[in-house]
Structure formats: structure tokens, C-alpha cells
Amino acid sequence: GSSGSSGMTQLALIGLWIGFIGMVIGAVIFGQKAVAMRRKEGMEFPLKSFFIVLWAGALYLTMILGETVTPVKDQTVFWGRYVDWVVTTPVLLLDLGVLAGLRPKLIAGVIAADIFMILTGLVATLEAPPTSYLWYIISCGAFIAILASLLTEFTASAARRNVRVNNLFLKLRNYLIVLWICYPIVWLLGAEAFKIIPTGVEVVIYAIIDIAAKVGFGLILTSAAPEILAQASNSESFMEAVHSYMGKGERERDRSYTP
Ligand code: RET
């Protein structure tokens, strides 16, 4: 059973409500956009944004109801965030990967690093110092690898695309990097480490950057011209890549394979 909002300050509860309402508004906007773009090339962009904010909204609700909030020693751990992030951050990276026209294998690699970053970040959150800092550093290692691949492989791949798709990629890449860097900084200043920011304020800050990273990101993406989204969606070259791994392409590779 849930413990309601016990163990939570008034400000923390307000912060969670800000996050929840922000995600619900986002779901209405992206849901409408997805319906408006139905059967069109590129409709997966508003659809992905819709599911990102739907999931985040559901997790905010579980935190409001106290279902994913647990008192650990003298502090309140909002572990529902990590259930949110482990699902939504891979989808955000998938958006950037598709936009960049990156090979599916590389997108999968970056998503694996991202899941590793969130799960080791959760371990850091549940752990006490000094061990928590060990996990924090391990998580940051994965984060740096993600940032590095965005600035190298993703960027190089996007540069080979249509100039308007590339410009949209660059705008979203920079927006994402600036926002994502806030998370490990807030973690360090908040209840999980130095305790410079009170828990309630930390919850409000996370809610605002969560809304910017999900709703703001999705708005920039889905407000692009329909023809840019259609080109960015690039399902033809993606299917070509899939077919080169499966079926005819594979048989041809096998036949020509000489050890
Ligand atoms: C933690 C702490 C451990 C070190 C690092 C972190 C990074 C978290 C990030 C979260 C991004 C969340 C987003 C959510 C909503 O869309 C786990 C805070 C590096 C980058 C974008």
C-alpha cells in the first residue's frame, strides 16, 4: 500500500504536481499532433514525445501518491524518477539518433550506455557516502561517453544529411546537452550529496528541467516543418540497414565470406 504524501514536505509535493501537470499538458499537445500527422511520414516523432510525457506523468503521479517514494535513513528517496528516466532518456536519444541517420547498432550502443548511467545513478542515490560517490563517478563515466558520441559520431552522421535536417539535429543536440548536464549538478548539490539545496527546492528544479527536457525538446522537434520531419524519419534508409543485416543481404555476405 502507499504511504500517501507522508515524509514529504509541502514544497516537494508542489514540485511533483508541477511535474505532473507539465507532463499532462505535454501529452495533450503531442497527442493532438500525433493524430494530426497520422499516416504521414514522420508521425513517429509526436508519437514518441507523447509516450515520453505519458510515462513521465504516470511516474510523477506515483510519486505524488507516495508509491515510488521511500524514506531511507534521514532522507526521502524519490526513486520513481529513475523508473521515469530509464525509459524516457533512451527514447530521447533514439530521436537524436534517427535525426542524425545514425546506424542502428550505434544507436543501440548509446542507449545501453544511457540505461547503465541511470541504473548506476539509482545505486548512487540509494547508497550512503562515500560509496555513493563511487557510483556517481561510474554513472558520470557513462554520461561522458554519451556526450562524446553525440559530439562525434552523431554529429558527423548528421552532417551527411540534408542541411535542414542537420540544423534541426544541431539545435536539439545542443538543447539536450545543456539540459542533461543540469541533472548530475542538481544531484550533487541536493539531498543525495552536499545538501546545499533543500529537498523541496530540488524536487521543483527537477520538475522544471524534466519539463524542459521532455516537453520543450518535443516541442522543438515536432514544430519543425512537416517535410523536414518526413525526411528525418528516413524509414527507407533504416529499412535498407535492416535488410542488410537480415535476408538477402546476409546470405550474400555469407557467400562472399572467406576466412
Ligand atoms: C544522475 C546521478 C549520477 C550521475 C549522472 C546522473 C545523470 C542523469 C541524467 C538524467 C537525465 C534525465 C532526463 C530526464 C527527462 O527527460 C543519475 C543524476 C550523470 C543525465 C533527461
Ligands (ions, cofactors included): retinal
> Widest sheet: strand order?
1-2
Largest sheet descriptor: 2 strands, antiparallel
Measured between the Cα atoms of the first and last residue, the distance is 60 Å
Q: Rg, please?
A: 20 Å
Percent in strands = under 5%
On the 0-100 scale, what is the average pLDDT? 92
Number of strands: 2
Which structural class matches the secondary elements?
Answer: mainly alpha
Write structural notes for this entry:
The chain has 10 helices and 2 strands; from the N terminus they run ααββαααααααα. The longest helix is centred in the middle third of the chain and has 29 residues. Retinal binds next to helix 3, helix 4, helix 5, helix 6 and helix 7.
Give the tags.
259 residues, mainly alpha, two-stranded antiparallel ribbon, 10 helices, disordered N terminus, binds retinal
Quick summary of this structure?
By secondary structure, the chain is an all-alpha fold. It has helices spanning 10-36, 44-64, 80-100, 104-126, 131-159, 163-189, 199-222, 226-233, 235-245, 247-255; strands at 70-72, 75-77.
